[in-house]
Structures are given as C-alpha cells and as structure tokens.
Amino acid sequence: MEIVFILVPISLVIIMIALWAFVWSVRNEQFEDLDKEAHSILFDDE
Amino acid sequence: MNRLNTAISTAECKYCSKLIQEPTHFIDLQGESFPVCCPGCEKAALVVHGLDLDNFYEHRDRCNPPPASCQSSRKTDSRGVSGFISDVSKAGPGRFALSVIIPDIRCAACTWLIEKALMQQPGMLRVRTNLSEKRVYLEFSNEDSIADLIGLIESLGYAVRPDVKDEMEIMLRQERKSLLSRLGVAGIGMMQVMMYALATYIAGPHGMDVAYETLFRWASLALAIPVTFYSASIFHGGAYRDLRRGSLGMDVPVSLAILAAFFLSLLNTMSHGEEVYFDTVCMFTFFLLLGRYIELGSRSQFQRSRDLTAHLVPDLARTGIEPEVFQPTRDLDAGSRFYVRPGEAIPADGVVISGCTSVDESAFTGEVMPVLKKSGSRVLAGSTNLDGELLVETTVLFADFVVNRISNLYRQATLYKPPFSILADKIARRFVVAVLLLAAGSGLFWFLQGSAAWMLVPLTVLVVSCPCALSLATPVAYTIAATTLRKQGIVVSNGAFLERLAAVNSVAFDKTGTLTEGDLQIAETRILTGKTESEVLLIAASLEKTSKHPIASAFGAGDLRVERCEIVPGKGVSGIIDGIEYRIGEAMYALGREIANPDAMGMWVLLASDQPLAWFRVEDKLREEARETIEGLRVLGFKASLLTGDRSAQGIILGKELGINDVRTGLSPEDKVKVLVEKQQRGERVLMVGDGINDTGAMGVADVSVAVSPVDVFVQSSADATLLSNNLLSLIVAVKYARRVRRIISQNVSWAVIYNLCVIPLAVTGFIEPWMAALGMSLSSVLVILNSNRLIRV
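Above: the input entities. Below: the structure tokens describing the complete assembly.
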C-alpha cells in the first residue's frame, strides 16, 4: 500500500490543476451564457 | 421547417415563420422556391443564403424558439449609426470594441447566425454573443466598418440598440463571477476531501496505520485551506462587518463554525489527535455558497428583465418628415406630434392621430398577437409598430410613460420588505444570540463533565442551527414572484399586494371599462327640443372632449370652444358654449332635478341647458372573459359584487347575466367608498377592481386594488397592481399565484423552525457528528431556496 504515498500527492497536483482551470474559465467568462452553449453544441458546421 | 398547407393556402414565411395567407412573394434558393411574407424577410433570407448560412433554419428548428413577430425591415434606433460610434472603445492597438443590445435575439440559433455572419466580415477579430442578456460584443480592426456591421445585422432583420450598462448590473455581474469561482473551488475541494475522508470512514477507528491516516489528514488540510480562506472569506468578511457594527448577523455563527472546525482539525492533524473535520468545513461552505448563488441568480434575472424594458424606448422621435426632423424623446412636450415608420419602436405614449397599423405590445402584456391601432387608439412607448405608418400625438411627458412608470413601480415594489420578512430577520438576530449562548453553554457543560467532546459539541451546535433557511425563506420567494408576475403582464406597484391578495375573500367590480370593454358607442339619440341631432351631438362631444371617462370616448372629439369646463367625477361635465351653460351627464346633475329615463333599459345620458335638450343611449359591450372570470373567482371562494355609478337597470341586468347577486347602482365615488367600508366592517376583505378613473377613492379603501387599464391608472397610481394584459382572467391567475406564494413562504418558515427545534437538542446532547450537522443545515437552506424557485412558474 506504499503506493498511496505517491498517489495522494499526485491527486493533489491534479486537483490543483483543476482548481486553476476552473478559476481561469470563470475569469475568462466561459460561464457567462449557459443558455447559448447548451444549444450551440447541436449546430454542426460543415 | 416549411409547412406548405395547400388546403387553405397558407404558408410559413421562410425567414420569420409568420403564417401568411395567400403568399405572394417567393424567393428561389438553389432552385427551390420558398414563400416569404414581406420584402424585409426576402432580403434577410437572401443575405443568409449569400453568406452560405442556410444551416440557420435547421438550427432554429432544433432550438424551438418562441414564435416571432415579423422582423421585417426593422430599422435601428433613430439616432442612427453615429450613436454607436461614440460607444466604440479601444481594445488594444488597432483593435476596437463595441457592445450592442439586440432585443430580438430569441434563441441560440439567432446568436449562431449573428456570430457567423459577422465573422465573415473583413477586419472582424472577435464576436461574442450572450443569449440571456441579448448582448453582442464585437472586436474589429477597422473603425470605419461600424456602419457596415450594423447594417448587416439589420439586414438580417434584427434591430440594434446601443448598450447602456448601469452600475447595478456591472456590480451584479462582478458578484456573480466571484461567487461562482468561490463556489467551484469549494465544490472541487469538497469532492476531493470527501474522497480522502471516505478511506478513513471505511477503515473505522484505528483501522488504519497512523502513517496513512496522517497522510490523508495533511492532504485534506491542503485542500481545506483555499476553501476556508478563499471560498468562505465572504462569510468571514460579513461577520467582521457585523461585529464592528455591534450587531450579530447570520454570518457570525457561520464564520465562527467554519474557522473553529478548521483550526480544531488543524490542531488535531499536527498533534495526531482524535478526529479531523475538513470534510465538514468544505461541505458546509459549499452548500452555503450554493444557496447564495441561487439567490443571486434570481436577483439578476429580475434586474435583467427590468433593463430590457429600459432599452425599448428609442432616444429620438421623428417630429417631421421631408425634411426629416428628430427631437430627443425626453424633451417631447405633451401635445407634440411625431411619425413612426413600420418596423420602428414607438418613442412616446400617445394617441394615434392618423394611420392604421398593428402594434406589437408583447413587452407590456406578454401577449404575442399584435394589436390593431387606428386613429384614436392609445399607443405605448416601447411597443413596436409593425406594418403601417403612424402619426401620433404625445399625451404625457417622458417620466410618465408607462414603460418608465413600470420600471419605477417595479423597483419600489421590490424594495418593499414584507412584515413577515422583517419579523424573520428580527427572530434570526435573536436566534443568533441564543445559538451562541447555547453553544458556549453546552461546551462549558461537557467540559465540566470532563468529556472529551467539549470542543466538538459547541461546533456542532453552531453548524446545525445556522438560521440561513429562516432568513432566506421570504425574500427569495418575493423576488421571484415579482419577476414572474411581470412576465404575465401584471405589474405590482405595492409590495404588499401579494400578501394582501392572498387574504382577500370578496371582490368588487366597477362596471364601465372594467367588466365591459369601455369602448362605448352611442346607440340612440332622442331629441327633446328644437335642435337637430348633429347639433346636440356636437355640443355633447365638445363638452366631453376634456373628460377621460369611458362615456366621453363615445362622443368623439367636438371642436366647439368650451369655457369654464368642469368635470364632476361620477356625475358629468359642464361648460359654457357661446354664452350658454350646458351640462351633460346623469339626469340629476344635468338638469338639477329628477327626470325619468325614456326607457328603463340601457344607459342614458342627458344633455341639458336650462331645459333638457337630448337623451343619448350609450351602449357598452361586456368583456368576453367577464363571465368566466367571475365564475372562476367564485370557485376560489370569492363573494362578488358590482358597484356602478350608472343608475339605469343596465347594472342589474348585467349582474344577472354574470351571476352577481350584490349589485349596487347609482353610486357616487363616495358611495362606493362607503359600501366598501361597510363590507369590511362585516369582516370581508375586499379586492377592488376598477379602471382607475372614478374608483380612486374605493381603491384606496379596499384591502387591495387592481386596475385593468394600463394608461389612466398610472396617472393616478392608486391601484396596488395593474393588469397590462387588459384581460380579467389575469385576476384569477394573480389570486391563485398569491395564495401559492403565501403557502410556499409558510412552508419555508415552518420547515426552518421545525428543523431547528428538532435538531438543536440532539446537537447539544452530542448525538450528532459535525458532518451530519453540516449536511442537515445546508440541505435545509437549499431546500428552502428550491421550494421558492417553484414560483418561477405561474
């Protein structure tokens, strides 16, 4: 079970990345308009 | 897509989906022919095709947008392109930015079309559309291309309006962003801390090597730090402000609980103590923030619907054609005239002088079908003229436009704090004190008992008893309710409207203009002296010109000079024409003595000088929905009565027809007040429904009042609410809705109270773990908010 000593720190690193990504996307207004993006995935171009 | 119905030869316009009878215009797209309703739509469809964006129609069908009124040939706000140039800002070297509002955006397909079309333009760097705010943000490299860009959007059939941001909105936006990022951090942190905690739960006490346990604790600590000090910082800030003001708000116990749980866990982590509560910290914070976030959502939706109305009124009115002259809408005097072209928004409230058109008033009434307007009809600023040219005379000043009054009244109504909410706040404040004392007391007790739980129990008490649910119960419900009613065409001007309406058990209707259409016609004239029919009609019309009573409108406007004109509400009008004093109105008033009506049936008006001159029989049509409304109100347990100033038998006949037993005729405005007071003394709680002209007094006395005509009431603003939809059935909707609001608020409050009463004893005695407390308390607040959110639907 010593592997946990490596896995837990790795999970922490991944979480930190996730946190950063989330805060970045909020700051860059990725969550401003949830109505539009819900539909725009259906609009396939070309 | 295109449903051609050959049987009745109607078709859907290719571009705006309007149904067309006998289509005459067709366009050819790649060999296929499609019907269109007008040249505007034809042009738009060609632009779409030319830009190779025919996918739009397919996308639109997928979104299922609400039916559009024809967007044909809509023109930009009269101030033209020059107005937009001043809005352009620099976004960087060689980059210009502009933000505009496009009120016609209806679905995601519209935003797709606008984005794609604009992105094909040379020099376009970035386009971002926002569906819920109906806002488009552009970045482009060539400052001179604005006219083309706006022209392109217009040619697609969308009106473009300048974007005016107010501070309130910017603040809400900032708040939303910061709250969302706190919420996300707390959520992600919570999930991962739970993962680590799960391992220890499964292992049970002492089931795990100390080394592993310590590892999990340190990892949880790392994640709890941002949650405690970033996500939860708004609670700490709020608590700090409360304490400095010397008051105890809701944030105090919350912040105390979070900090205490965190530092207790920190201590235990470092000293290898019994237990850590990082999971509790994260969960507690996450659910509290979730509650705040949903509450903010309902607030900003409210704000947005208010803003959109402000964007409806154009800045300029066309006061002259050939040459075109424009005047700022704000500076229009009552009585000035202006022209409105098809597709333009009407800049001011007024009366149509000439022209015939259909007008889209959906912004006011929620009703999508256009309304026919001809000479003499009233039009409202902010509604859209669809197909004809109009000459309109303004009746009121800018500040008194219905659209502006609505937004003012709306703001006032939401500033209102229901007594219930004030009480809840008061209780919550006392409650906080009690909880703090209780927490301290229980800690002390367990400490004296020598129990190890002496730090844990107060923590649990703090967490479990947070009175958030109690404080949130009413305000959230009210914010949502005001927005929902507004969308139904009911504008609440008095915040107490909903709670009073819910308690009402009796309804009093005015007759003319309320139960009837108020669009009166003269059905018969009986001459009593030597004058001719046209002479008496002209005299009557000239006298009635100044009156706003619905009867007056039956006579049209006469152009004789009237001196010393005097209106006696509920009685009639008097004035001097060519040196002779005439009076028109009920017989007693006009002649000064009683005289029998020529016929018991019908409503008769007498014109007299020193002797009776002529009788006019005025006819009024019953509103289509009147019977259904009264029946519906009776089912809801209402006693209905009819109060009318009319003396004739008309009222009684009408009452029979509608099934109203309590009919009182021949009432002066003062009499109406007396009748209402009498009813109230008998224990009835009365809803007065009138059209706001001679019912002002009665409306003031009644427990709650509703006006059915949007225009005159705003002049008097005596009613608690106004039906912009001009449809009595809205009354039933409003009553049912008010009762539902009351029910939901009382559910919320009872839930919050019962929950706390049950749980606190358990916490004090140490039966509940802190994490259970966090879960219970948070779910309780979320439950209250979700329950209030049910009010979004009528």
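Note for the figure: The mean pLDDT of chain A is 84.
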